[in-house]
Amino acid sequence: MISLVSACLLGLGFVAQQHAAYREPLGEILHPRLLLHLIRSRLWLTGIGLMLAGQIVSAVALYEDDLTKVGPLLATSLLFALTAAHVVYKEHLSRMEWLGAVLVSGGVALFLIFGQPHGGSSPDPDSSRWLTVPLVVVIAAVLVLIGRRCSLHVEASLLAGAAGILYGVQDVLTRGSLLRLREGTEALAVSWQPYVLVGVALVGLLLGQSAFDAAPLRVSLPAATAAEPIVGIVLGIVIFSEKVRVTSGALAGEVIGLIAMVTGIFVLGRSPFLAKSEQAALPRSESNPRTR
Fold first, then answer.
1. Closest among 73, 211, 85, 50 to 140, alpha carbons compared
2. Distance of CA 182 to the CA centre of its chain
3. Bridge partner residues of 243 (DSSP)
4. Are 192 and 125 in contact (CB under 8 A)?
5. Alpha carbon distance 79, 6 (integer Å)
6. At what angle do helices 272-280 and 77-89 cross, to 10 degrees?
7. Is the distance from CB of 228 to CB of 171 less than 8 angstroms?
């Protein structure tokens, strides 16, 4: 339940952020001044406030539960983003949106039912298992480099995917920091996780806003929403030794659930409601056209 509240806040925050970020010039993609300009927007600040509230709630969930349980539920943030857009534009959901909603919610349910995630413990800060984090960050960097050479919409998807990867890393570092906090504030203060967490969060924010700047939500949000839980699940198993059932039947159900969840996310991402943000955005100047 706590994870769903977090997903709701995150989804609403993404809608507000994208409406504001899409108005910014394309030349500000991946540039820190994008954040400096956005901070002047009340709408964007509202979206950031909702997102921060969602992250605080998700931190509470991560303190009580494993990443493999919390991550899939956070993927439902796209459902709440779609609902918010539906309320704003006062249009009925089509069969495609209902299909996407069923795939996402059903996929999450299948993974949790068949996987039955459990266990897990915090490794020492100097454990070699933490080396997985920089490896995953390198993958995000590669997506950014490839995106800079692609068309605008492809770049938006790749930037969003990179942002989603960093969101997943952020979830891992949050859980690691919270587990260290159980040992006392001094243990947390001498740990590297909370400090790296701040840097990862800032870079992830810049990537996410750059994706929102480049394309409407139907292009810029699904990849991020899909990447975050996948990375969280993988790192939860590798770093925290969280366990899922590995019988043939359970594995089949888990894989089908994850495929359904990711498929549903991209189906919902093609929703015309999310595309309406493109129409609502202010026109770009001729020096900053929508295409390259």
1. 211
2. 26
3. 118
4. yes
5. 12
6. 60
7. yes
At residue 29, φ and ψ (nearest 5 deg) are: -60, 130
pLDDT digit string, tens, across residues 201-256: 999 999 999 999 988 877 888 888 888 888 988 888 889 888 888 888 889 998 99
Cα–Cα distances (Å) from 240 to 43, 143, 172, in that order, read: 37, 26, 9
With CA atoms as reference, report the closest residue to 217 among 71, 13, 9: 13
Query: Which tokens is 107 given?
Result: 């996929």
SS3 263: helix
Residue 121 burial class via C-beta count within 10 angstroms: exposed 0-12, middle 13-18, buried 19 and up: exposed
> Mutual orientation of helices 95-115 and 248-269 as an angle, nearest 10°?
150
What residues have CB less than 8 Å from 31, skipping those under 6 apart? Answer: none
